[in-house]
Amino acid sequence: MEPKYTPITRRSIGSRKFLIVCAVLCTILFWIAGNLYAQRGPSVPTGIQNDLDHTNAFVNHPPAAAETQPVPTIVVPIVPAAKATNIPNLKHLWGVPETSGHLRGEGVRNRTQIGREKASLVMLVRNREQKDALMAMKNIEERFNQNYRYPWTFLNDEPFSDDFKVQTSRIASGEVKYGLIPHNEWSVPDFIDTDKFHEKLKEFEAKKILYGGSESYRHMCRYNSGFFFESDLLKDYDWYWRVEPSTGFYCDQLYDPFTFMRENNKRYSFVMTLYEYRSTIETLWQATREFVKEHPDYVADDNSAGFIVDGYSGKHSLQSKDFNLCHFWSNFEIADLNLWRSKEYREYFDYLDKKGGFFYERWGDAPVHSIAAALFLKKDQIHFWHDMGYRHPPYERCPTDEESHDSVRCMCPFDKAKSFDFDGYSCQKRWWKFHGQNDEGKPIPKYKIPDF
Predict the structure, then answer these.
(1) pTM, whole model, 2 decimals?
(2) What is the dihedral of CA 424, 211, 292, 384, to 10 degrees?
(3) Is 445 a domain residue?
(4) Which of 98, 249, 378, 437 gives 20 to 30 Å between its CA and that of 156?
């Protein structure tokens, strides 16, 4: 006897079949979507991706191998990743795809230089300054170098610790080099009267002159004045950017300053200028006068002597006019290494060195570099970075123009009127006046800015 289906029974069976078909189709669609998701991964906001990149850089970096003996020069071109054992899997948490080469610390770290110039960031630093060095590095990497991957060169009068190498190589986006300064470049030379030198140390300390009683500070000034540019680690470079611990930048650097310098025929640049303590350089200008009297041809015709010598009216006036103490603050320098390697500068440094002023007084590398650049370079070969915000305790400055603040994300924790440019201890207004500008540096000359 065949079963009898009422209209209600038929509709009930049809509904069940429809639901079964829908369930099967949904299962297939979810399976396909899941496979696509696993292959592509979700899009991660740029800010979060950057945080993940930075986190991986720190958790996946291997420790440096222990040294069996001091090695003056250590190069860290590429750093393979090590596995972290107790760190949460952030990639799984955020759905970051398992691809190598995109995240710092993932697989092999890509340190290939992007910038076009033969240049390096250079830091003279000691192990005990590691924390401040890392902060300065992180700042300049985020503001500039992560987009160019220029190498870092670290110099020290003592061997760098393994931890220093590990931590700094984690922060650096490019190749990293570590150099040990030769003893003869960081010691009292034979031609110095050591008894007289130690008497001068006591005398300067008693007068409470800044770093007056420090022997190591004098070694540092002499080394930066006459030796750093001859380091084997820098022999393949034409340009350097000097970076010091505890320094930082308030604005993004959206173009390559090395390329800017080369394309605009600049050879020395600065971001702050101020007065030197006369008590530290009592005889520096007299020694300079003697040198240029012997080598008048070394002084450029269209020079910047008018900035450092009040009343300058030509080479002949150098013998009668005094140094006004204005100099470029050398804790920040972007410059041509070949300027210091030149015959003119080498002879100038050797002449000063034999005078003994680095030890008997406290000649700094800043006034030495400044005087040399002002005399040996043409006026338009020295550049002031008006669009950079910079701090070096106790001073800081920011761009004076609104355009720079709008375009390079300046984050200055002070009013522009309080920038060091307008401080009474600054020589910036002298520089502007020397270049025919007003007290705010206007009109600012327009330069050829490289593509970025």
Answers:
(1) 0.76
(2) -40
(3) no
(4) 249
